[in-house]
Amino acid sequence: MKTLRRLRNEVEKMMAKNDPAHDFEHVKRVYRNAEHICKTEKVDKKLVLTTSLLHDIISFPKSDKRSKTASTKSAIEATKILQKYHYTNTEIKIISDAIKCHSFSKNKVPKTLEGKIVQDADRLDAIGAIGIARTFAVGGAENRSFYNKSDPFCLARKPNDKKWTVDHFYKKLLLLESKMNTKSAKIEAKRRTKIIKKFLNDLKKEI
């Protein structure tokens, strides 16, 4: 755990200037989610928590063309960091592969249980009340309109979350419940998805 504390301090410094949706608070929440999932899975907890700390060390704005490469670049940077902390080559490969595969845009299911847990932990932070907050933080940073005024809830069109923030719920967030890997994450995702659906129903009444 001493290694994790040192690693945590290093990552916190690296992420000091990140946007609110992808800052070190996000990493801390993913870490806690991963800890919770580990309680019901037979897994190497140290590798899961290490991956949680390093999964987003390279981040770009969503409008940046490099955004889709962030997980790969994070995996490369993580490998360099882990060598300093004397992780074995086998451990580094498990962590690196988990980081590469975790992102939604990659559309991959990690091969290892460690990777599946971190992917679940990260996706849980995209839904529920915190997911709503993060979605609008990104939308504001990208100067997007809240919603399409002629069809706010994507009833007759494909969602375009590059233009309208609410579309992101339909393009990604409402899909995450069905994409969870572990039993405990599925249970928590169901609870958090209900929060999003209630928010959208409340929004319909107000606009």
Characterization of this structure:
The protein is mainly α and 207 residues long. The protein contains 9 helices and no strands. The chain has helices at residues 2-14, 24-38, 45-54, 70-84, 89-101, 113-124, 128-141, 167-171, 183-206. Helix 2 (24-38) runs antiparallel to helix 3 and helix 7 (128-141) crosses helix 9 (183-206). The longest helix is centred in the last third of the chain and has 24 residues, at 183-206. It is globular, with a radius of gyration of 17 Å.
Summarize the structure.
The protein is an all-alpha fold. It has helices spanning 2-14, 24-38, 45-54, 70-84, 89-101, 113-124, 128-141, 167-171, 183-206. The protein is globular and about 55 Å long.
Whole-number mean pLDDT: 93
Structural class: mainly alpha
Specify the CATH class of the largest domain. Mainly Alpha
How many separate helices?
9
Shape: globular
Distance between the termini: 49 Å
Helix content: 55-70%
Furnish the topology, listing elements before pairings.
Layout: H1 2-14, H2 24-38, H3 45-54, H4 70-84, H5 89-101, H6 113-124, H7 128-141, H8 167-171, H9 183-206
Helix pairs in contact: 1-3, 2-3, 2-6, 3-5, 3-6, 4-5, 5-6, 6-9, 7-9
